[in-house]
Amino acid sequence: MREKAIKDVEIIDMSYPNISIGKIDDEKTVQFKGGVLGQNVRVKITKNRGKNKKGKFMEVLEESKIENSKEFCPHAGICGGCSYQKMGYETELLLKHNMIKKLLKNAHIDVSDLSIVRSPKIKEYRNKMEYTFGDSYKDGPLVLGLHRQNRFYEIVDTDGCNIVDGDFETIRKYVQEYFRKRNASFYHKKDHTGLLRNLIVRKAMHTGEIMVILVTSSDTSFDPMRRDLFANSLLNAKTKGRIVSIYHVINDSLSDAVKVDSMELLFGKKYIEEKMNELKFQISPFSFFQPNVFTAEKIYQKAIELSSLDKNKNVLDLYSGTGTITQLFAKAANKAVGIEIVEEAVEKAFDNAKENQIENIDFIAGDVLEKIDLVKGKYDIVVLDPPREGINPKAIKKIMDIDPEEFIYISCNPKTQVRDLEIFKENGYKIKNYQVFDQFPRSRHVETIALIQKM
Length: 455
Prior knowledge:
eight-stranded mixed beta sheet; alpha/beta; Rossmann fold; 23% helix; 3 domains; CATH 2.40.50.140; CATH 2.40.50.1070; single chain; 22 strands
């Protein structure tokens, strides 16, 4: 087989979210995932047909001139997390703004007044992290951290990570040292042996409550006495917030994802409580909650401002999660109904509504594609907040058949959102307003809201 060519290229353009376009010579370009505008990088050509080739990013040869920040994470370019650590925040916002503008323009959506809302915090904003146990090199000491960029086995000790709250680092280091002292083994993905798999930390930023979830295999070395010892010991970690909940999850799945075979509450209560826009929300171990609560508050407030919400309107919230948006709309509506496929999230949505004394609300557990047929009555506003893959193509026609006055479409993936917006346009709708929010500073991602109305 002919060896694939390796080229050194300059990145001359970018497409959302992470597609770089590199110049090979005067007439040919190569597209690949990764990189930053202006960098010189090494790329392996994977598809060599025509002028526009496809490639795989290998390494940075020379940093971009826009990567001129004097303060950045010591693991920038090493761990597989942040991509924009080395540029100033204003430059990051401009880069994201331009990529979204181009995405919308290609879909023939008016972008004349497009703007991007800054995150109130660009450091220590994340309220959830999922760490992995492993080693940074073969047979090295136990490390608890994040995967090295483009590597499956190597783990980076993320000491100094600047996007997480300081308590995350305190807990991560404490747990890492705890298991190092006991010579505990980590789970080896090749032969599927070993104990330690993941550590998940969640923190309610406005209340300071912290939840810790230790994920292990069913290896018997983590016996009940040791579990008690781990939970009691962890409470000695010197955090600014309070650890109020500690779980142990057993996961024997062969995949790298966290899957729950069994779950035990080792200490405290079943959830942590967060406050957002004057409401309280209970967050359980695996329920979805926005990772940047500071920007999320702005997003939800904007969603209400864009809508024509009043006390006479009925609201249908599709992909409602734990009912955050549903409740915020219900406060100013006649009634609100949410549909969500994750049963645990629906249970928590009912608990949250009860806690907030909101009675003009209901939730339905199930797939939007199936359950939308069960929704009765007239709805004036339909809120859409689907997962990253966007709206199921089979469901989008049913959603439009509801025929509300307007749709509010919130998305964490503008690429699939724009794909769906084109379908709305083809069926007689117009995009009345579009707003970008920097929900994920230092990463490639943003959150967006579209107001959709009938022509």
